[in-house]
Protein 1
Amino acid sequence: MIHTEKLCKRYGGHTALHGLDLDVGKGEFFGFLGVNGAGKSTTINMLTTALSSTSGKARVCGYELDHANEIRQRIGVVYQGNCLDDMLTVRENLMSRAYLYSTDSAAIRKKLSEISSLLDLGGYIDRRYKTLSGGMKRRCEIAAALMHSPQLLFLDEPTTGLDPATRTDVWETIEKLRKATDMTVFLTTHYMEEAAKADRIVIIDKGRKIAEGTPFELKERYARDTLVLYPKQGDEVGRDENGVSDGNSVRISIKDTISALPMIEKYKAFITGFEVIGATLDDVFLRAVEENK
Amino acid sequence: MKQIAELTKRNCRIYIRDKGAVFSSLLTMMIVIALMLVFLGDMNINSIADGFFGENAADSIRENVKSYVFWWTVAGVLSVNSLMVVLTVLAPMIADTENGIIQSFYTSPTARWKITAGYIAAAWICSSVFSAAAMLGGIVIGAVKGYSIPLGNAFLAVLYSCVNAFMYSGLMYLIAVFAKSTSAYSGIGTTVGTLCGFLGAIYIPAGTLPESVLSVLKCLPVLHGTALIRQALTADAQNVLFDGMPAAYPEKLDDIMGVRLSFGENILSSQTELAILLICGIIFLVAGAVILKRKTDR
């Protein structure tokens, strides 16, 4: 669905993207991670044909980037900020956006009905956009991006700045959408727990790809689980495993959860309790960025 | 065309539903009316009556002068209305760029010129409709005061206002291309709005301005737009006012009140003034489009 080779973008003397190679398959949920200024937006802007590349090749939905209209007809984009009009109703907003892609009024009305029922917009479809809650607004933004039945949906930091309840609402909408369609989703975010839902992840930093793989593979490669042992009074544990003690507990870095079992067995007479903390994508991200410095 | 029509509908709705925007676009018109009511109207009436008919002009003549000044003022209102409505309706063009909405338009297959055309068409349509509404208001108020006007002339004035609105749509689009934020556009808009009030001789008759200033104003389309509308609206009142008098009188009044404009000995016909407005509008639109194309990456 997306294929790039040495994709590069320069602004004057500053290189925002250094030869990015990407492959995103059909139906894949692809996570694209990076800190602010890493080159995520530049990449999305080029892939959505809003920005031209300086060099390199890219194909989106089977078309080279210079076939902008063919690509635009096949992609939907949900931006970080709200792009619908406050003064219009949800229905008017969705209709006006759909006309940017098609002039078939009957088909647009049919699609509106489908999207409305898929994303549960019925309760507020004739309300003005400005009167909606944050979660409802985001759902409408997603609906607007789907009005022309895109093959590929770009979600550009769709939950940034939202409260936890609204973020959950947005993710429920995305999950529902993924179950109902086999649409390819390209997600950029800096919320690692959201990226963990992706089939595959690429991490970029300073315009360069620094890591790629499934969330599991990346955790395996860049992060380790932690076994926390709570020793009985006066007992020393974990010294052989380079455990780090804070006086109350000893933290031992382990390859994976299963590796904790022999250690627990070894120290069970000397501890009052234990816990295994799984590696997170935050750890992966920090480690990958650290290694790239 | 369907896409332009839908974008135009969207932009018109945004304007019409924003009560604050509608009010601010009509504010200058209200200021013109207020100034005329407070002192400018009487000043014009007295100077015409005293200048042409002497200080002891009969009440019936003064009433005819009032009718003339009334329609002259309505013409100014229509002219300033054309500008201010265009200015306000185009504001979302800057806001859409500022808050990223334009990005969602640019990632659709709709050509950029169609998106721009949607803004300009909305500005032109809203301005034309509001001019027609202002004309209707003028006819009603005129009827109450006993100042009637042939419907053909009123229709012609609305038609000229539409052409004037086209020129202003081009001008404001060109200005909007340079504005980087809504606050900058608002500042530019206020300046242009005030300036055009004087450039179009809305407040003060063009003939009372120094010749050098008038020569400069004649080179700008603003004055021609106002003059055209005034020609349509004041023609009948002027005929009544100077009934049976030599042609030199109405011609002189036309010169003083900025109804008739000339370059040297050549008096500009309404066709020429229409052409000036249309050509200027096209030049502004093309210039704006070229500059915008250069400014954007693709």
Note: Chain B is about 80% helix and 0% strand.
Protein 2
Amino acid sequence: MDQPSASRILRVLNPEGLHARAAMEVAKLLSGFEAKVYLVKGGNRVDGTDVLEILSLGAMQYQELIVEACGAQAVEAVEALAALLESSFFDESM
Amino acid sequence: MKFADFVSTEAIQADLVAEDKDGVIREMVQSLLDAGGVQEEEFESIIKAILKREELGSTGIGRGVAVPHTKHPSVDRLVGTVAVSREGVDFQSLDGEKVHLFFLLISPPDRPGDHLRALENISRQLRNDTFCRFLKQSKSADDIRQLLEEADNNQFGA
């Protein structure tokens, strides 16, 4: 049987983009799901649970990321990431 | 953004003496001070700010890499340095591994974009295993300077 999959275009709302602490929060969040999650930006497709890889996207405020997930909790993982990115988390600090 | 745009080459260290987080940060900021990258009267204030940022969560991002950083009003452009620890240092990293490669960044409070672009460049290069391995094996500051230059010239395909 095929694994569930989900994808969505998300916008980074953090004024300072996906900086180190934000990237860590994303990685921590996505590690908690039974799903393989990738973030895609400008031809780069990276593992959403790896901080170094997330930072390599250099995602700034208002830039779009495509999130692609597959696995038992693919839908839940994408939902949770959307909620986190839209909450403009860690906006006052790096 | 390239390494040459923010790394103070005179401050690069190939063999850190410090064995703990506070010591590494102090040693790296000291080398920036010696290289003229930061002002003497701001030395303690910069160290305090970097340590305060670490309290919010370690900048040990895994794979033996840490990116201690802070914003500080005393700098008018992004300044940074690179250091290698042969023994590795417990930096309370995400993956629990000791840190061997350090990239320290100090940025003006109003330039978050430059900070992000520097992090982007550092992490893109570090995704390349060859660059990572050569950096860890560097025997001198000159070795590191040459590696960063090669990375800036896209010789590692990042």
Note: The interface with chain B takes residues 15-21, 23-24, 27-28, 50-53, 55-60, 93-94 of chain A (CB under 8 Å).
